[in-house]
Protein 1
Amino acid sequence: MGKAWVKARHRDPYYRAAKAQGLRSRAVFKLIQIQERFGLLYPGNTVLDLGASPGGWSRAAAELVGPRGRVVAVDRVSMIPMERVTFVRGDFTDPDLHTAILEALGRPADAVISDAAPKLTGHKSLDVARTLDLARSALTLARKALRPGGSFVAKTFQGDGYRTFLREVSEDFDAAKGYTPPATSLGSSETYVVGLKKIG
Ligand SMILES: C[S@@+](CC[C@H](N)C(=O)[O-])C[C@H]1O[C@@H](n2cnc3c(N)ncnc32)[C@H](O)[C@@H]1O
């Protein structure tokens, strides 16, 4: 990373707040803002968190679902164990991993949340396409894992294919919305697709 990037990061209020509060990543503020906007996670819920490492979203989700709820976190990269969070290591785009994920859940999930992102190449159209591929895989898994009425969140970028994906989500949910949390880095086209109330 260049010096300008390091400087910008240190000026970033969300990065500074995450450090000051001992949080695992600044990404946690995005989930909190999505939660404030849509109210997706409730005490007692079972949540599937895809692309979970280093664990900011998992920890926030575990706090929101409380002692009667639980979180199953999936990532290719391991993360430090947390109370109420079961970690499954692997690639969630691989259907072979789905059985292990569904077993770890033990019951249909109330919410599937995905902050999964590929290693960015800097080639915008490639990064947009790869992120959308991950979001689409998260939707495939959500179709198997979510209970009727459950909710879905996936990280995407606005760009080619974004509108098509939003339409695909709207086929499985009562409503599909795009939302860019204020904590998203300035100038980024990152946005989250939210599916409300899974049909059937
Ligand atoms: C932006 S980070 C997630 C940050 C996390 N939400 C937090 O709050 O700490 C994106 C994560 O997606 C994971 N990821 C990307 N592709 C994946 C895949 N196919 N299967 C599992 N994890 C994946 C990466 O390993 C990375 O840890």
Note: DSSP finds seven helices and seven strands in the chain.
Protein 2
Amino acid sequence: MIMDLHTHTRHSPDAEPDTVAERVAAAKRLGLRYMAVTDHVEINRYYPAAYYHAQETEEFVYDGEAVFRGSAAEAAAAQADCAPLTLLCGVEVGQIPQDPALSAMLYQDPRLDLVIGSVHELPGRPDFYFLDYEKEDIPALITAYFDEVLRLAQTDCYDILAHLTYGLRYLPNRADYDLTPHLPVIDEIFRTVIGKGKAVELNGSNLKAEIPFTDPDVSLIRRYRALGGTYLTLSTDAHATKYLGYRMDVLEQLARDAGFTELTYFRKHRPILVPL
Ligand SMILES: [Zn+2]
Ligand SMILES: [Zn+2]
């Protein structure tokens, strides 16, 4: 098993209380070669709630700074002693376009090998997970989502563009949703990522729920490749040790089906290709 570059540990508010050491042991059992620890920092709520004169709720969790402090320290300390596994110190930064200056500062942290850039929510809205889709204008919502992903792609505060189709993940009838009107902006996102030398992620998080979608699906990965995309990462987005590397054989095969013969990981933000 080659890589799992997007995983959450006990430092992420929505993950199981697993330590980095437990993950390293599990990765070795699986024969994983590259694993990144990428706990959640929602950059629009980086400081404690009081800083924003706000209240912490289930939908709005604050203090990404504390998450990052714990996660980066634990991951960086574990890096020295985990051969043959290569452990990468990372972070998943949500909503970069809502605070590019703070995101740029975080990106410079010398411990970081890679930053995953995500859009989990639109400005002023909760995570797509919490939306009541009965009350949404879905095409407008998805249009706004991809526009926000494009704004993310245009920054320099990430190495890997996470789960491109996250905005679709919780749609009640995802299989029936027609992406065709969004293909021009998706192509612009891909061209932007390619032009900046960044990577696209094939995220298999849904597979653990037996939902037959990856984010994005293989047709979009093919499209990325056709536009000249060469940097592709694979991830389970595991929030528990039992999902580390889960269905990675499926993700590797999808990458091959899309024409990829190499995958990419990042060391101190520098892309490194490995044979698939
Ligand atoms: Zn995410
Ligand atoms: Zn994640």
Note: The radius of gyration is 17 Å.
